[in-house]
Amino acid sequence: MLAFTIRRVGQSILVLLVTGFVAFSMFTYVGDPIDNMLGQERTQADIERLRDQLGLDQPFFVQYWNFLKEAAQGNFGLSYRQGRPVGEILVERLPATLELAFVSGLMALIGGIGLGIFTAIRKSGALSSSIMALSLIGVSLPTFLIGVLLIYIFAVELGWLPSFGRGQVVDLGFWTTGFLTVSGLKALILPAITLGLYQMTLIMRLVRTEMLEVLRTDYIRFARARGLRERAINFRHALKNTLVPVITVTGLQLGSIIAFAIITETVFQWPGVGLLFINAIQFVDIPVMAAYLMMISVMFVGINLIVDLLYFAIDPRLRVDRSAAKGH
Amino acid sequence: MTDTPDHRPPEMQARPSRLRRAWESDFIYSFTRSPVAMVSAFVVVVLVLGAVFAPLIAPYDPFNPASLNLMNGFTPPGTANQFTGDVFVMGSDDQGRDVFSTILYGMRISLFVGFAAVLLAMTIGVTLGLIAAYVGGWVETIIMRIADVQLTFPAILVAMLIFGIAQGITPPEYRDQVAIWVLILAIGLSDWVQFARVVRGATLVEKNREYVQAARLVGRSGNAIMLRHILPNVLNPVLVIATISLALAIIAEATLSFLGVGAPPTKPSLGTLIRIGQEFMFSGEWWILIFPSATLLALALSINLLGDWLRDALNPKLRA
Amino acid sequence: MIRSTLTVLAFAAAVPASAETFRWASQTDPSTLDPHANNSTPVLSFLGNVYEGLVRRDRVMGIEPALATAWEPIGDGEGWRFSLREGVTFHDGSDFTAEDVVFSYERAASEGADTASWFAGVTDVTAPDDYTVEIRTKAPNPIFPDSIANWLIMDSGWAEANGAERPATTEAGYATLNTNGTGPYRVTDRQPGLRTVLEPFDGWWGEDRGNVTEGIFTPIDNSATAVAALLSGEVEMIEPVPVQDADRVEAAANVRLIRGVEARVIMYGFSMDKDTLIGGETDGNPFQDARVRQAVAHAVNVPAILQTIMRGSAEPASQLVGSAMRGYSDALPDRPAYDPERAQELLAEAGYPDGFSFLLKCPNDRYINDESVCQATVAMLAQVGLDAQLDAIPVRNYWPELREDQFDMYLLGWSPGTFDAEHPIRFLVATQTDRIGTWNFGGYSNDRIDELLPQVQSEIDEDARQAMLDEIAQIVQDDAVYVPLYVQPLLWGAADNVDLTQREDNFFNLRWVTVN
């Protein structure tokens, strides 16, 4: 166990280094931050002085090394755009993304499991066939289009829900939350649906498949032969056995929800880290981009590592293969 | 890493010779019994034919700038333009392009990008997956760690990174021409991991089966065993994933367009058309958004439904 | 350095439901609250509510007294003397005196200050007494008072106490997040990129101020989302309204469209200093021939662009500044007519009867519908035989690539910071040196213009100055140095129950807002 853990942690660190390197090498191509930092009356001398101050004139490897050195101490530098420490900005923006991810994840989980069970039990019913087909619409349209259409219908035409932002938020000192106000909760609805739809479809289909598998096993057949009621079989026995893979997948999906939040946050002007990242690209705010990508990597690698270790702890013989759990 | 009972979803599990048998008997039978599959297949075939024969079907050539007249811009569907008198079935867009023709041409690009990207992802993924599982050892570790690096990043981010770098190193005068290839590369490279993982998993199972052991005993080479014996048996899940990946790739292309890294506006894909169209949602020119979106939905939905059916059809356990 | 605002336990958005709350949205958040760190419209427009200059612009762009009550030339063009307003206090209560003006000059003109170019001709600034300031210039500068409306005055004592003596450009300083101006509003909450709250400053010296008791600014960079927010009543004002949504906003109940003409002229420029084109096989560089550039001017159907893509919201441009700018040349009211036959003749005369291929570079997120305009241009040029390869890229890559000469023809928008015709000549037309011609990417060079420019800059006599500007405008048009297309429209959307003023420089003044 210890050897395995050390090896996986080592590999994870290597993965982080490589990720950082790839991300960093892209920054050379995203553009030049200088033009956003200087007005139109700047001179060539101004450009060169600023480039020197930012260390942009140094060779790529020097920049990367400096970045790593600072990052190892938890210092991601100063945002070019705001001039403030990047860590501070990320911490400010993280609650918005996490609350959105949480709500959409919860929605996906409840909706997905519920519909999954329904479509598995009523396997050939017309309603469940329709649900199966309709659920695919959610994965057959790009997220941004779903968001834009929802805004048009519910915010502009019907005027029921806000079209952008988090509404009123309450500052708890370390966390800003939208859960405590009516407008904050209303503001969550459309973005959460936009973000959660894809995951909901995924979970629903997974639950259905797993349920169908389990319902066919000898163990359930035996229960049925013993004369247990259908409801008891479905829920007490079949569902219980289904939940393990579902929970694994959901855990892994949490990461991709946060990543996919980039698009949702852009459409809804949701002030989370995804919007921060997109704005950082627009303004070539390299420290913010780097820190965001590293944060996402750490999160994904962390989740991967934990799941691997859990599998290992539960059953050392278990082959670690969670390919099905990955969306896109 | 040892072999144990398979906890993966059914589409990831391989059964020996299932493909051929299913293909020969159950497969066609199942198809003719599924109205959803037949309708989906019909829609896909119609759309693909429309895309392939776009130059013959489309009333205009929207990719030829010299043929465009800006005064035709924003003509509603089926009405004559007030300046030129031209009529467009599905209306015209901001550049005076016929929306119907642009959709047909755009679908060509979307489908081409989709197919090519999936093919690329599949080739890389299947090859690496087979090698990883069959060779094992440090080769496997390296391949699967690379897969991990890749999975660390969500596909959309990976595609953005690849697109950014490729655009950066392409001289500007060629960017327009290479944009499509860059998209294929970006989407393809961001999607191979799925294939690799599935193939590796299936291969690990197959590798220890008796027929492979037997082939090894009679002295067949590793390559031959992989290609002749294992590959056909792991193709089932690959086919299912490829179908779903095709829909995903087409949508990913649209999403990338929204993020500003898509096909160029002079040679738009469906995604680019939607990105442009959504700017006109409030202004009343709904046809610029709705027709391309509906086409994309029809295409992706049909492919997804086909994939869904395919998964069930290739996995007879799930059938009633 | 400022610590995180998160340590404050507060109901951040406990908004009283009074009618005097005014919420507005714009595409860009001011990147800093430091008035000398970034010379850009989003920053200076926003800070104009908080800080003030010696002079300010009124609703119709005229210069009027602000912190200075009067000004006069010193001697024979040696500089300008300003008499300062007495009894003015900063938001923290300290008095405004000449010392603050001298300090603000030193700060705004320091190396690293983005506003330094405003003071390029200034030799020194002195304070003979507490309420007089003398600004001396190298050469006579007749438009100096006009050029400093955005030079905002900071409290010297406050800046020194907080270590903000110099503008913070790469690293946030105290003044990046905190303000202490003399203006009509003070910043009570600042969350960069999210929201900024303004409240009236009770000690303000001025009179002309509406009834807003709380102004909440939110950046919304997706323009469709901004329109949705306006239509659904979540904000009272947005800028800009995308041109395609203008009619919708105009027609919708409870909101209205405010239409104006911006100072920004959209034009095409050409690469003239390269020996070959990068986007084609042609021998030599056809754009060095003025006839080829004129052909482009005739080939672009500007009326059609204005009619469709700009939806009738923009004005055609015949020169590098719009007609509302000082120094506009009345002798040149019309741009070259749309005439594809003439364009083909000119191309044939220049030796390119079959046209040629080249690279057209455009930004796709900088100007209103920039990508659409370039796309339409590709079609129009194709009709006269010119094969333009369009490369439309985000603005973050655009300027670096223009600096590296990666273009044959390109789109440029220019808004004259001084609202004077001299400004684009200095930056776009003058032969490139370290200080001037810095945006002359095409490498145009004309001795006569280089000779006239310094004379224009120091000429006191209005008529003589205008004569020189007319001559330059004529040369620029004859040579087709640039092909001006149109002046960008200024479209704001506002709720029906608010009165506000749209100024031509796209500055937004909260004090001109009245909520009914």
TrEMBL record, chain A:
PROSITE patterns: ABC_TM1. Pfam families: BPD_transp_1, BPD_transp_1_N. It is found in: Cell membrane. Residues 94-311 form the ABC transmembrane type-1 domain. It is a multi-pass membrane protein. The chain crosses the membrane at residues 12-30, 100-121, 133-154, 174-198, 243-270, 290-314. One of its GO terms (biological process) is transmembrane transport. One of its GO terms (cellular component) is plasma membrane. Keywords: Cell membrane, Membrane, Transmembrane, Transmembrane helix, Transport. Belongs to the binding-protein-dependent transport system permease family. This is Glutathione transport system permease protein GsiC. It comes from Palleronia abyssalis.
TrEMBL record, chain B:
GO terms for biological process: transmembrane transport. CDD domains: TM_PBP2 (cd06261). The keyword Ribosomal protein does not apply. It is found in: Cell membrane. InterPro entries: BP-dependent_transpt_permease, MetI-like, MetI-like_sf, OppC_N. Residues 107-307 form the ABC transmembrane type-1 domain. One of its GO terms (cellular component) is plasma membrane. It holds the Pfam family OppC_N. This is Glutathione transport system permease protein GsiD. It comes from Palleronia abyssalis. The gene is gsiD_2.
UniProtKB/TrEMBL annotation, chain C:
One of its GO terms (cellular component) is ATP-binding cassette (ABC) transporter complex. It comes from the Bacteria. Residues 1-19 form the signal peptide. Gene3D superfamilies: Dipeptide-binding Protein, Domain 1, Dipeptide-binding Protein, Domain 3, Periplasmic binding protein-like II. GO terms for biological process: peptide transport. Residues 63-426 form the Solute-binding protein family domain. GO terms for molecular function: peptide transmembrane transporter activity. Keywords: Signal, Transport. InterPro entries: Peptide/Ni-bd, SBP_5, SBP_5_dom. It is found in: Periplasm. Belongs to the bacterial solute-binding protein 5 family. This is Glutathione-binding protein GsiB. It comes from Palleronia abyssalis. The lineage of its organism: Bacteria, Pseudomonadati, Pseudomonadota, Alphaproteobacteria, Rhodobacterales. The gene is gsiB_1.
